[in-house]
Design a protein that fits this description.
mainly alpha, 16 helices, about 75% helix, cell membrane
Length: about 525
Amino acid sequence: MTGASVPVVERMPISNRRIIIVFFGILLGATLSGLDASIVATAAPAIIGDLGNVSLLPWLTTSYLVAQVSIMAVFGKLGDIYGRRRMFAIAISVFLVASVLCGIAQSMNMLIAFRVLQGVGAGGITGIAMALVADLVPGDRLGRYLGYTGLVFAGTSVIGPFAGGFFVDHFSWRFAFLVNVPSGLLCLALISTTPIIGVRVKHRVDYAGAIMLALSISSLLLALSGRGSDSSWTSPRIVTLLLVFIVVGAGFLWWEARAPEPLLPLRILKGRVTSLSTLANLISGVGFTCGIIYPPLFFQAVAGFNAQSSGLLLAPFALTCAASTLFAGQIADRFGGHKAIPLFGMVCEAIGFLLLSTITVSTPATTVMAYGMLAGLGVGCVMQTLLYVVQRFSSASDMGVATSTVMLARVMGSSLGVAILGSVFTSTLIAEVERRVPGFAVADIQGTPERVASLAADVRVQLQESFATGLSTAFRVAVPIMVLGVIVVALIPARRVREHLAQAPEEVSLVDTATHGL
């Protein structure tokens, strides 16, 4: 801080009824940001059919993602300074305004611009929601409640595709955005039932750090997302973006070590427990994305199921992930095991993706589903348990920025997973198609695997083989990443975690110092 002592406000007791009401509001807000990506993905073909300009289609997701990950840590810090409930309400409001603007957009350029604004709101929601839960819930029940939030994040990956399809089939793609409005207003009403407490203290916002963080992360994601279209890591645009990421990222770390009130206090990542837990969340983010994106491609392009059936076959992965998140939190609360549980989870992820790397065109869809369930079990055991550990190791004044850092790592892991594994899958698919069906235009089926079923039988079989090979190769690349995750979690000092959590009081009812009132 600035050197002045921070006056601490005595914690205010809060009834279980009030906790449940406000917690439901937080969950509703988290659902908005989690549901948006999968709904829009399903509605994308209808959007292109209405607004045109198919070349801009990837930017529907990329613009949103770049804005989201760039702003998360900023909102986490602002929540520490001005109060997390206040900043959460602002993030929800930004998201709602952007949703309305997206719903009335008249061109792809307008829609992409409004998606950037929507990503800012989503970044604020994601960056603050988990810390707000930690403020609200007593420490002895925190793991359980974090499990509930994990259930929401996993569940949205199943509900989203069905919701998007429903709106497109029965109403309009615009409702995929406008549906956020009533839910968001209800969220604002619910979280407003908690009073703001805490003494106002002047602070300085690290604007220079915020700009450098946003620029470095944006450069990396733009480089990774643009890799597919440039098809070369040595293209001038990709090299320039990567250089910007390295130079500005190094400048960000240099500045944060010297800033009076840094956006991301490096002391948060100096301890082995918090740094390794954050890295493990990043790696598990790769696993979550891999388990969500690639099995549906197998179900549709190889096994021949339609989109709705593919969503049903994906549901066990998401539900297993959600259930293990919930029960892992409860087990950790009651019996401990804050290292053993995520270690078990990371091993499950590694084995699950190892099994998925063996799939062929003749592998039954139910077998792929079962392998995915094992990976989903692992993802659920890792993410929220280690988030809980980081929160309990963080001081009250750093709670928001520590939580948003973990969430940033998780989203970055998902982004890296899309970029790295997507590049492997695409390059393998193209090579296999060129080898098996010379002269076939791969662009005709990329992004629309369901069209494979409409091709001539001999071509269809070869393309199915190509898809299966591309997917198994992508899963094979994921295996060493998950093994690295096993090593990272194994290096977390279990004794220190045990001793620290045993000494930590059953706190964080309405935790409130002057720096982070609800």
